[in-house]
Specification:
CATH class of the domain at 11-142: Alpha Beta
Order of helices and strands: EHEEEEHHEHEHEEEEH
CATH superfamily of the domain at 11-142: P-loop containing nucleotide triphosphate hydrolases
Oligomer: single chain
Shape: elongated
Number of helices: 6
Strand content: 15-25%
Structural class: alpha/beta
Largest sheet: 6 strands, parallel
CATH architecture of the domain at 11-142: 3-Layer(aba) Sandwich
Number of strands: 11
Strand order of the largest sheet: 5-2-6-7-1-8
């Protein structure tokens, strides 16, 4: 545990279904800090290697270099204190211990931490990192997106050529070629598109 100062900083968890612009929001937040001359440190969970080991990239083309969450944990606390904000992408892949470390940064170093990620996996079960954040975050906000029907999307459906995949390992990296955000009803019905047969 880190020990130290009185805190006014907060631990934020911004969650949303696939394609809700979580990464774009993280990158824009970093840009906003930097634009006013403040230091923001971007990092991501180690498991996210889709766009390179130390690159964060959004679907709309924004990208920036970052460090890994395990590297943040290893930084000296005096160095962490030089930042005005820590921004973590793909936080659902973090361990419980890493989330607790992020809360220590807020509580004892007085540096705000903004986390972006999925709340649940393709079976609507909480990721360990997200579950811990729901328990300890000061502020939890949803970044909304919509299902093909226009209703709010809350489910991250994994699919293949046969339709929605209902079983398998929790972490399987992918984007639009493997996942789609659906409302709960169409997730239950297995309807990836209006013309899809019920599974």
């Amino acid at each position: 545990m880190i020990s130290g100062v009185n805190n006014v900083a907060k631990l934020y968890f911004y969650y949303g279904a696939m394609n809700s612009s979580k990464t774009a929001n993280a990158l824009m937040t970093c840009f906003n800090y930097q634009e006013v001359g403040q230091r923001a440190l971007l990092c991501k969970a180690d498991a996210d290697t889709r766009d390179g080991v130390r690159t964060i990239r959004s679907r709309i083309g924004l990208k920036q270099e970052c460090i890994l969450l395990r590297e943040l944990v290893a930084l000296p606390k005096e160095e962490i204190k030089t930042y005005h904000c820590i921004i973590v992408d793909e936080v659902q892949f973090a361990t419980e211990e890493q989330i607790d470390f992020l809360s220590d940064i807020v509580d004892f170093l007085d540096v705000p931490v903004m986390c972006y990620g999925l709340r649940t996996d393709f079976q609507n079960r909480l990721f360990p990192g997200s579950e811990r954040l729901i328990a300890v975050a000061d502020t939890i906000r949803e970044i909304r997106t919509v299902c093909w029907c226009g209703k709010k999307a809350v489910c991250n459906a994994r699919f293949d050529s046969d339709g929605i995949v209902r079983g398998g390992k929790q972490i399987l990296l992918g984007a639009n070629e493997r996942y789609v955000a659906l409302c709960r009803r169409h997730f239950k019905l297995g309807m990836l598109r209006p013309e899809t047969e019920h599974v």
